[in-house]
Amino acid sequence: MRRWVSGLLLLCAILPALAGGRLARADEIDDAIAGFAGNFAEVEQAIGALAATDDAVAPKILEALADGRLRIGPDHSLYIEDAKGALVEARTGAAADPPGKLKPVKVNNRVRRAVEAAMGQLTLLSPDPGQRMNAADTLFRSPDPGRLPALEQALAEETDARVKALLEQARAAILLMVPETPDADKIAAVETLAARGDQAARVLLGTAAEKSSGEIAAAANAALKSIDRELAFWSGVQSVYYGLSLGSVLLLAAIGLAITFGVMGVINMAHGEMVMLGAYTTFVVQDLIRNAAPGLFDYSLLIALPLAFLVAGAAGVAIERGIIRFLYGRPLETLLATFGLSLVLQQAVRSVFGPSNREVGNPSWMSGAVDVGGLVLTYNRLWIIVFSMMVFALLILLLRKTALGLQMRAVTQNRRMAASMGIRTDAVDSLTFGLGSGVAGVAGVALSQIENVSPNLGQSYIIDSFMVVVFGGVGNLWGTLVGAVSLGIANKLLEPVAGAVLGKIAVLILLVLFIQRRPRGLFPIKGRAVET
Amino acid sequence: MNKFKSRTALSGALALAIMGFGATGALAEETIKVGILHSLSGTMAISETTLKDVMLMLIDEQNKKGGLLGKKLEAVVVDPASDWPLFAEKAKQLLEVDKVAAVFGCWTSVSRKSVLPVFEQNNGILFYPVQYEGEESSRNVFYTGAAPNQQAIPAVDYLMNEEGVERWVLEGTDYVYPRTTNKILEAYLKAKGVAAEDIMINYTPFGFSDWQTEVAAIKKFGSAGKKTAVVSTINGDANVPFYKELGNQGIKATDIPVVAFSVGEEELAGLDTAPLVGHLAAWNYFMSADTPENAEFIAKWHAFIKNEKRVTNDPMEAHYIGFNMWVKAVEAAGTTETDAVIDSMVGVAVPNLSGGYSAMLPNHHITKPVLIGEIQGDGQFNTVWETSGLVPGDEWSDYLEGSKDLISDWRAPLSCGNFNAATGKCMGTVTQ
Q1: Stretch A484-491: mean pLDDT
Q2: Which listed residue, of A19, A156, B103, B291, carries a Cα 20 to 30 Å from B173's Cα?
Q3: Domains in chain B, CATH or no CATH each
Q4: With contact defined as beta carbons under 8 Å apart, do A491 and A444 qualify?
């Protein structure tokens, strides 16, 4: 009795699924499914055949295939593993009891592309606008004249404006391909594509301009010209944006140094290792979150920020108290001692965490990209720009508006005068150094999102950081900002022209020449403080 | 009865103690020393530390089997600290002071070039386990990694035939391996009828991390209407930010696949591979190889390193093959004397981990299967294509002017690393 009831329930569960599509002849589907046992070419054919049946099971099987959840038994029957790891028979959707050992159906890019194309056909009328959007996009990228009737039908039924626009572009792409299209329609298609205005549209218009003549070719050529102008504009904007992004990374790396080296005058070669400590703090925080509370993962960076500041700051205070305070006024010894310290710290991290890279994940709000006009802005870079500006603003506020900031400036400008006003100069020294190191640690949290978290992380930034501080003018935070951004932009403007290697060399040479002319950098500090 | 028992036990223990003493005495006097020349600090430590560990494991294994020629093996580990001149110094120390029978070491081509004269002058033996650019053959070096024809060329063939790629981006780090490999690939592609405007070559510095411009350029190059692929010889740390940028800018493997020659399981261990699924790598071994030898190797590795999560990779397999070949050659020669071992190396065949036998060729390169794998969500590779048989390593590329006439044969009558078949002359000890 019980079994009977559950069988009935199962049937009820399957029926609506079957009712979704046209009921294909069962042997068509069986034939298609048999193809999944073959090599990649046969699997590709099977995908096409399965999609052509238009049966409701087709998208389910294809989706499972793309996700790597499709299994094949020794008797060539297919099974789908669902998210919980339970197996169901692909053909019927019934709970399965496979006769032998199952093997996953192997997928390569060719198969994946075939699945995408097939899904494009099958999901053109899907109730989910996201799926329809994907389907329309697939159709645009691989226009197939045979799909025109289905496309027209979808276009007539479409309500979402964005999907509709994409469908019209796909239709235009197909119309341009077919020689029999009336001229008026072709010109309309050229206009639709011209409005899209990206590289893909440019390719389609380019072939159209070559193949046709007269009015259509003229329209296509005019569209090409306007697209080229637009693309050139966007590529310029893109270079500047990339430069800004590189500049923000440089600023983050250098801003802690702008305090320890710029304000205090300590040549701290272990600055990069403070950045590394911050990055490893992020790794430890994420590791704990992954094991203890996976739900908090998106907040891992926010949790890591104060911790990284404390860890690196404490390390900084310890370094100042333990080493640097004995070496004030002896820059060469400071340089050697901190360089040695940086090696010690690197090897210590290598011993504790191992020499290989550690995985620091991107939280969901830092993954992916957004299209703005012809630009692709990746979220992680965008956030880093915002973050570096925030860190900069906070530091300026701290130095200008707080008592600690006032004392710091007082001590660095005239130590003896400050001491006689009752400021505990050595406490201020270690706090300043701790602040600079802590800011470096915070930078490490941000850099862990775009860089390898390895013991060498700091090393790759130390030279760039010094370059930025010296270029901007030692002791001037605004100079560091301008220096970082202009070095970043100069680098990214040169890169497409000269290549990454030559571009970097060119920037270095320009910098050397500049320092020859203005040894104190962009914004030198004037007055007596400099001489002491 | 009882008394008797205790007396035998006592004498037995005494005998054991003496034997044990004798054994340790023998250990101190007669061991065969094996040098391990891998960076344990500095930038290359990330890749090379693992190779040091796998060598210690192999030596340990061999000692458990009773050692070699009745003697125990003793590992001499030195740390050249990713510093190329230091490689030469440490190699000299291994050969002259420690008098090791063979050295297993180096990763980058520049470190190999730096130790090469040391090995030739002191007549040592070096096993080099990493895939490299070819154009070299030394009597004192055994190349157990892939030559370009065992990795780069089959990978390009796969993309051309299986994926229908017509436009090529050759993206590399700026040093000798990518530059030479790309030169060979460019010549090969042009020989296959690819037009010059369909090839884009770009180099970036070591440890490059800001890939925005490069990835945008690849995207633009790839949207010209022809199927495009990236052949990546990007080295080491620069790979992680490169793949992250690809993922973030939304370049999927189905649009523009990237085939990499320096990215293995170890490099992917520091990366979330979900956005990379479908990108490719060409190697001669993948950890996912489904053979009993491989399962045994992985089990031993996990037991030795005491960490179930550690992965295995291609250069580790190369050391596995190289070490076993050396053991066989020493057994055949009956001595660890360099010249005798070099002579008996050629022709030695040992099982590799992907289910075949690799043999040492007269040019001191070995035969290997070539596998193309796709990156999976779990950081492993899924083999999507492999050569039907083993491919013999070809040291002098057939696609470069000046090297296509050269052959290398270190067997007795010829004994030359760069014999010019066109002029019939041996060029001598020019190893560049």
Answers
A1: 94
A2: B103
A3: 13-147+291-371 (3.40.50.2300), 149-289+372-392 (3.40.50.2300)
A4: no
